[in-house]
What we know:
Elements: H1 7-26, H2 30-34, H3 46-68, H4 85-95, H5 101-120, H6 124-128, H7 141-148, H8 150-169
Helix pairs in contact: 1-5, 1-8, 3-5, 3-8, 7-8
Amino acid sequence: MPKPKNKSELLTANESCYAALTSLVDGFTTKQRQTEFPFEHRDRNIRDVLAHLHAWHEMFLAWYEIGMAGEKPVMPAKGYTWKTTPQLNANIWSRYQEISLRKVRSQLERTHSQIRELIESHSDEELFEKRHYPWTGTTSLGAYLVSATSSHYQWATKLLKKFAKSLEQA
Length: 170
């Protein structure tokens, strides 16, 4: 799927990629949803993958709130740089280890809906004009949204398809 270039494409990509992901998750049995991946990866099960998506939604929403208030958000998170995202992602993984898949799914659905509403509240220009908002630097709000939604959902779907294929081969 090509990267969205306007609000309509962003909303469509956001919803279709999310629907594909949730449909894939729903296709696993209850037992499979709790099963660890039989291959090496930072995220070791479905919960971990969905928790990762939710955590990045939360970070984006925090950046947005701070940025729209006229301040410069710390990105990606306090104590981390874009070069240290592997350490940030490892920290995210550890934070969610005691949270159930059911709760993570609920949290992800909530933040997905919040982001959809946020997208709907902006014009094409606000979303895709580079430097429209000072806090987004040299890029556009839409580019951050693509990364936090459809592109990230595609990554998750690809990983879960790999897991599904491994189950078929077992």
